Please model this.
Amino acid sequence: MKAMTLKSFGGPEAFELRDVAKPVPSPGQVLVRVHATSINPLDYQVRRGDYSDLVPLPAITGHDVSGIVEAVGPGVTTFSPGDEVWYTPQIFDGPGSYAEYHVAAEGIVGKKPVSLTHLEAASLTLVGGTVWEALVVRAALRVGESILVHGGAGGVGHVAIQVAKAMGARVFTTVREANFEFATSLGADVVIDYTTEDYADAVMRETGGRGVDVVFDTIGGNTLSRSPDALAQLGRVVTIVDIAQPQNLVQAWGKNASYHFVFTRQNRGKLDELSALVERGQLRPHVGAVYSLADIPLAHTLLETRNNGVRGKIAIAVGPSANLAGADLP
Model:
């Protein structure tokens, strides 16, 4: 099979398309013909060596799968050949999704929502699971509360807006002016142009000085130290960004704030919850650009480019049924 292999840590040129052995499912595993995957910040962090101690080289990376079950190992009872499935591979525990085939433990695999193409489904597994973990499990966002989603036009942010609205929250988000209409179409109630206005000032103005109940950080920088300026009493801050630089959180003390640091855990339950939102028409991933398996280095370059203009996710068409309709081909 063809696989995009990471031969060394570094820039996008560290990838090499190779022929490798097709995997065989062990007991409790399914063999999936990968039809689509996608690109996440985690992918380029792995590629450049941020987790070098956990990734032996050469490696097949990638953290999203949408495809069709080709074979099942002994003991598998949930799936049969021909089933359409989606999942996030177990991070740092075996080969990833940048390949034509992938094997996965039955327990992390879900039935793909029928209303999504493979490209759309592969654009939702990791970011959707991350959003569910952040907003539902950790922040415990409730009906009638408010949330500030940083980076609402991005891969994680555009999903967070939709999930927060489905949970009954009032949603604030930061985007560039060019993405106002996009963010509003997702359900954002208050859209803030972070290039021209301080988001904390905007939140306080729109909430009458109260602040929001939850801040969801997808961008890093000084967001952890600045979040209390936009936070209500007993508010929660949830971040998915690994920030090495220490930050002063003394302002959070005055708000009785709690902080949550999220690294996604894989399980079928979150995928089933996301599927329910998809099938009710409350959630749909946006595919902003599509590349081929061979062009994954170009896709990495695009995602790492600040202000690249891509809304939503960058998807990778691997198999023949990855529908390219409605996506922009670079």
In short: DSSP finds ten helices and 16 strands in the chain.
